[in-house]
Write a structure and sequence with these properties.
Blueprint (H helix, E strand, L loop, with lengths): L1 H4 L7 E10 L20 E12 L10 E11 L4 H11 L5 E5 L13 E5 L7 H4 L1 H18 L5
Parallel strand pairs: 1-4, 4-5
Antiparallel strand pairs: 1-2, 2-3
């Protein structure tokens, strides 16, 4: 399944965001002091890219946008080179990317036809600006929790 996922390219208008998923800490690292936030040993960084074009039919259903294919890729860090490399590899150059205004996304204009960073003042509004990427992250977290009974700590 992994090789099939790598064989197709996302295109059109895309939402892009990173997500953080809880993981088990290896036994040899359990005694180390824990970091908080995005650098935590308890979280793995995942780049989420979702095709999300404007919905012409039923604009109120589906949050005003229709969802297409999506990709979730585990990444080692949130550096611009890492994220831009993944976009270069899995997104068509003719695409348009909708993102927040993170500094990690500064090189996208060199890789895709259009990059539209949204400046969102209130963090609570981000899921409304990028609905499908957040639905995808929430569904993946729920699936992992339900199937593997992961500890949230």
């Amino acid at each position: 399944m992994g090789s099939r996922e790598d064989s197709y390219t996302l295109c059109g208008t895309l939402e892009l965001e990173e997500g953080f998923f809880a993981v088990e800490i290896p036994e040899d690292k359990k005694g180390e002091p824990k970091k908080r936030g995005g650098g935590s040993q308890r979280k793995v960084k995942v780049l989420v890219m979702v095709e999300s074009d404007a919905a012409s039919e039923h604009p109120n259903k589906g949050k005003g946008r229709k969802v297409g294919y999506l990709k979730m890729k585990v990444i080692s860090d949130l550096k611009s080179e890492t994220i831009t490399g993944q976009v270069r590899k899995f997104v068509s150059p003719e695409s348009c990317l909708d993102t927040d205004d993170s500094a990690s996304y500064g090189s996208f204009s060199e890789v895709v036809a259009e990059h539209r960073p949204a400046q969102v003042e209130d963090k609570k509004q981000i899921p409304k600006v990028f609905p499908w990427v957040h639905v995808s992250i929430a569904n993946a977290r729920r699936w992992l929790l339900a199937n593997f009974h992961l500890n949230k700590n």
